[in-house]
Amino acid sequence: MAGNFYTVACPDCENEQIVFGKAASEVACAVCGHTLAVPTGGMAEIEGDIVDTVEAR
Ligand SMILES: [Zn+2]
């Protein structure tokens, strides 16, 4: 398992953004700056709603 990508909907502005499941740095919404993912050392903690999972190939 190389890790998946997730389509995450921002809880503040509903912008949908692709986030890597093992993001090594904080991922912020491109529109409003809300934090969408926080690195934990393994699987990142997703702060928004995961609307879709994109399997890594
Ligand atoms: Zn946003």
From TrEMBL:
One of its GO terms (cellular component) is ribosome. InterPro entries: Ribosomal_eS27, Ribosomal_eS27_Zn-bd_dom_sf, Ribosomal_zn-bd. Keywords: Metal-binding, Ribonucleoprotein, Ribosomal protein, Zinc, Zinc-finger. The keyword Metal-binding applies. Pfam families: Ribosomal_S27e (PF01667). The keyword Oxidoreductase does not apply. Its cofactor is Zn(2+). HAMAP family: Ribosomal_eS27. Part of the 30S ribosomal subunit. This is Small ribosomal subunit protein eS27. It comes from Halapricum desulfuricans. The gene is rPS27A.
